[in-house]
Amino acid sequence: MIDREEINVVWFKRDLRLQDNEAIYNALASNKPTLFLYVFEKSLIDDPHYDERHWNFIKQSLVDLNQQLENYNTKILAVTSEVITVFNQLQNYYKIDTVYSHQETGLLITYNRDKEFARYCRNNSINWVENNNNGVLRGLLNREDWFDKWENYMNDSQFEINYTNRKLLSIESVKNLEKYFIKSDLETTNHKYFQKGGVTTAWKYATSFFEERHKGYMYNISKPNLSRKSCSRLSPYIAWGNLSIRQVYQTALAYKNEENKKQLGAFVSRLRWQAHFIQKFEMEHTMETASINKGYHKLKKSISLEYQQAWQEGKTGFPLIDASMRCLIETGYLNFRMRSMLVSFFTHILWQPWQASSEYLSRLFLDFEPGIHFPQLNMQAGETGINDLRVYNPIKNSLEHDADATFIKKWIPELGILPKAFIHEPYLMTPLDQQFNNFELGVDYPKPIVNIKTNRKRALDILWNMKNDEDVVNESRRILIKHTLSDRSRMLKTNT
């Protein structure tokens, strides 16, 4: 048998960046030839949580990385297959010493894949070194000192990587390998509204936010239209690893001064909460399919495919709900309040199980992050037992946060012909009003599919009563013991 050259492999997952990347840092420190690898896994492509918009974002990110790597005469081997299949093929050409990657807080399918890959590595005498991701720790039993460790990680030095004179598989070698795999086509079509993936674009968004756009952050964070400019818009770049949270955290602190400390302090507080929820999911992965509070497993809801379809299509008859959904479909982005309102409407007003919304929403969110997605679904559905019960009123939110109906008119142009008084509640129009405005409710725009007052009261009554259920109470106690921080106020601080 021909002697195979010994190499290391950096397996990219949700860490699509070249700096502050521990996997790359450790691989290059070994001083062995290193291959950069990304696998478009068929099982994930077929998984109902993912959408073409995610894969396009990843492709754009890889193209951006390859442009940077040209300077060092290497590129990423991007192939379509399954991970173990790829490594089996790689071993025909190279002897793999160590695989470097991060610990992924992902779906059950990626968790099971990682367990299988660990067995594969053991059986093939391959070392697999996993580093923690963004300060999230595996194997925690409680949060006693978690926040201290996370904050220390955020304030620690970044992994600064010098690629010059490093042993990287040459472009020629990678291109030769591509002949033996199903090479992934990284070409994408630019989309009018989707944010473009890649480290380069990520830093453009970061720079514009920290230098200028942050000025409206606290004032506009809840407004569906103005938030699109005033919020950082960094969530997809963090979710797919174009930026590490530490890079964003330290950049925010570097820009922070007396003039902007409230705005950027509030932003940094959001980064803390983001990490908190991802850590929560890491410790309670069952919330992918079931409520974290087992007391709510007895809560039974009716299934209405008609209601679900109307909600999915943005045709419920409630303008802010419909505008939010149509915007999300078209752009992949929605501010936090509107996301919460969509889930609340689905689970409370339509009285549908949150699980029935999960896959659909994950496909729409360009910034789909399992560690955020599932804890938030649980919380907004009111099925944690430890959070305040919020049943969002779409009419109240519409009047408060889109008073001039700019957002509604953009995404539901058929309502643009109506006087402002009717845009928020078109169902209040009398037949004469409709005739006068050349508008027919139920034809030009749907009638409300439910009685919101009746359904809202039903949801509140049932869920408030369940808070006193013995199983809910016991589970709430368990959750608090496991996940509550010793000093919760530190998560809320905005001026440090």
Question: What report would you give on this structure?
Answer:
With 496 residues, the chain is an alpha/beta fold. The chain folds into three domains: 5-178, Rossmann fold (3-Layer(aba) Sandwich), CATH 3.40.50.620; 199-283, no CATH class; 288-483, DNA Cyclobutane Dipyrimidine Photolyase, subunit A, domain 3 (Orthogonal Bundle), CATH 1.10.579.10. It has 25 helices and five strands. The protein has helices spanning 22-29, 42-45, 52-69, 83-90, 108-123, 146-155, 171-178, 199-211, 217-220, 227-230, 235-239, 245-255, 261-283, 305-313, 319-331, 336-349, 355-364, 370-380, 394-401, 406-411, 420-423, 431-436, 452-466, 470-483, 489-492; strands spanning 5-11, 34-41, 76-81, 94-102, 127-131. A five-stranded parallel β-sheet has the order 3-2-1-4-5, sandwiched between helices. Helix 12 (245-255) packs antiparallel against helix 13 (261-283) and helix 13 crosses helix 18. It is globular. It starts with a strand and ends with a helix.
Quick recap:
This protein is α/β, with parallel strands linked by helices and 496 residues long.
